From TrEMBL:
It is a peripheral membrane protein. It comes from the Eukaryota. Component of the cytochrome c oxidase, the last enzyme in the mitochondrial electron transport chain which drives oxidative phosphorylation. The respiratory chain contains 3 multisubunit complexes succinate dehydrogenase (complex II, CII), ubiquinol-cytochrome c oxidoreductase (cytochrome b-c1 complex, complex III, CIII) and cytochrome c oxidase (complex IV, CIV), that cooperate to transfer electrons derived from NADH and succinate to molecular oxygen, creating an electrochemical gradient over the inner membrane that drives transmembrane transport and the ATP synthase. Component of the cytochrome c oxidase (complex IV, CIV), a multisubunit enzyme composed of a catalytic core of 3 subunits and several supernumerary subunits. The complex exists as a monomer or a dimer and forms supercomplexes (SCs) in the inner mitochondrial membrane with ubiquinol-cytochrome c oxidoreductase (cytochrome b-c1 complex, complex III, CIII). Gene3D superfamilies: Cytochrome c oxidase, subunit Va/VI. Belongs to the cytochrome c oxidase subunit 5A family. It comes from Dreissena polymorpha (Zebra mussel). The keyword Membrane applies. This is Cytochrome c oxidase subunit 5A, mitochondrial. Pathway: Energy metabolism; oxidative phosphorylation. GO terms for molecular function: metal ion binding. One of its GO terms (biological process) is mitochondrial electron transport, cytochrome c to oxygen.
Length: 72
């Protein structure tokens, strides 16, 4: 995947979370794909990921996002 694909996937995921259709699985899948491709998310993407974790009320996923950013 290219950088723009991740940005689009992140925007689509945020729309799904806002509408209540997405769950933690899709967020984990996106994060795993980003890590596997050595993609470094920007500050806006990190903010969106953390907001998504908050909306889903998933603390363990928030920790996973922070660890992924730390390792990058």
């Amino acid at each position: 995947m290219y950088c723009s694909s991740y940005l689009q996937a992140n925007k689509d995921l945020m729309k799904q979370i806002d509408s209540g259709k997405a769950d933690g699985y899709e967020l984990r899948k996106l994060l795993t794909e980003m890590q596997g491709a050595d993609y470094i998310p920007g500050s806006e993407e990190i903010e969106n990921l953390m907001n998504a974790c908050r909306k889903l009320n998933d603390f363990s996923l928030a920790v996973r996002v922070l660890e992924a950013v730390k390792w990058k």
